[in-house]
Specification:
The chain has 2 helices and 16 strands. It is mostly beta strands. The chain has a 12-stranded antiparallel barrel with strand order 1-2-3-4-5-8-9-10-11-12-13-16. It starts with a helix and ends with a strand.
Amino acid sequence: MNRFKTIMLLCCLLAPVALQAQQADSASNWTRKGIFSLTTNNSGYSNWVQGGVDAFALNVSVDYLTERKGEYSTWTNIFAVAYGLTRISGQDFPTRKTQDKLEIGSKYSYRLNDSWDYSASLLFQSQFTEGYSYTETNDRSRRSLISDFFAPAYLTAAAGFTLKEKNLLRVGFSPLSMRMTFVANEALSDAGAFGVDKGDRMRTQGGANIDARLDWEFMKNSRLKSRLILFSDYEKFQNVDINWEAILFFKINKLLFAQIDTQMIYDDEIDVVRSDNTTGPDLQLKYVLSFGLSWEF
């Protein structure tokens, strides 16, 4: 799949959302908020007897939200991207990816009462570039392709109810959900990666979905954001896919921030290379400790 054409297709899908936001007059209830973050780290050594390795790391992220609130309805759109690289001298593959995220979502809610909404949502998730696993063999590094742009990509449509607790907690219960898994990379498709049949580029599943979000400012300039997504295919309802992310954010001043980002994923249809070099489903864990610059717009 041509990467440029795919990005253009996603932009076209989002264009009506942006157009309606622009056409809303000044009296409308549109709210827009964005955050740009940049973190970097660099170290260098020359004749340093304690030892050390030259290294450079860079991470960039953008989060953007638009929301329109009416008397009974709320329409929320999100756009989130993140990308990070590190370069360590003396490695067979010195430049490696540390972060890669592409997420676009839209949700419409209609108020049932003060605590419950009817809701319908659409969520797209993927990444930008190739992902590799690295192994050391006879003092040499080897890498194996495990993911790519649109491999995987997930498109989830869900309808159900949302439980609200002020602006702190929202839990969506969607007994009617459909998840489409795309594997555009030919090699990964032929291997049957991410649950698709070997040689297929797409898989569709019907099931139930829970999407819980927490946004808690537990003290001034300190915030905990957490999101838990659970999906169960009706054909294998006892197997639950888990995607849980938690971000602990500390704002130092208008520009400086510190952040701890953790994520846990489990999907019984995704094979990973375990620490003992066996392959199969396993818990995926990631954490990123960041200190850098942020700009709200």
